Amino acid sequence: MLFDSHAHLDDRAFDADREELIRSLPEAGVGHVLIPGSSVESSRKAQALAAANPNFCFAAGVHPGSISTMTRDDIDALASLAEDPKCVAIGEIGLDYYYYKLPEERDTQRYWFYQQLHLAYELGLPVIIHDREAHKECFDAVSRFGVRGVFHCYSSSAEMAMELVKIGFYCSFTGVVTYQGARRALLAIERLPLERILIETDSPYLAPVPLQKQRNDPRNVLAVAQVISRIKGIPVDDVIRITAENAARLFRIEL
Ligand SMILES: [Zn+2]
Fold first, then answer.
1. Residue 181 above 90 pLDDT?
2. Pairing state between β 56-60 and 30-35
């Protein structure tokens, strides 16, 4: 069964038909979904969805796009969310230098990124990293804090991917691998051992070709597995099985 390791099913985009969509996942071959938090509020929604669905789990974290109003209380809130056995990671957290260019914005992002990395380290939980045009800083930060985890929607070089493998990280790929101009991601897939690759949709964003611009959902994670199967020259069923085992190993869950 497919394991979508990153789908924002708490997003408002799913308000109209969330239950119906969730019910349709098994027949589309989607067995497991990890719902990452993007704010404290969204982490709570992710927790509720995970509680209601046996094969869902969630992560608690504040996305770099939502940290401008973050406070110490939010770190405490994440820590208590993390007590839930279905909370399998801290995320998504990281740095976004694509949307945020001002030095003071980047300082704030860095501060709260480090606070959340520290929390993950203290709790012994893996992290889900959002790295947009901040590759070296994200790499340095996770190695300094000595945490493990995954770089979601991997967009850096094949060389960095191999360095991440050395420090116990995984790289996760989205429908972006079906886009023109995804060369870097494809090169990283070529180099990475399959045992360190995860697949995800990042729903409701990043729908694969030919569905771009439409709302994405976990059923489309198959398109990512198909690209990996082509690049690696192995049957898609093996990609589906191995990437699910990888996610289960990283997030310490039973399939
Ligand atoms: Zn995301």
1. no
2. parallel
